Amino acid sequence: MYFVFSCLGLLGGLLCCCGDILFDLKGPGNQKLGTSKNIDSNWSKMADWRFGLSILLALVGDALVCLGFYSLGMQIASARPLLGYLTLGFGYFGSFAGILIHSLCCLQALIYKGAMQRGTLEIADDILEKIYKQVAVPFFAGYISLLAPTVTVIIAILTGALDVPKICLLLNPLVFLIFGLSCRKLNPVKFQDLPGIIMPSLGLGMFGLIGMLNAL
Question: Per-residue pLDDT for 133 more than 90?
Answer without folding.
Answer: no
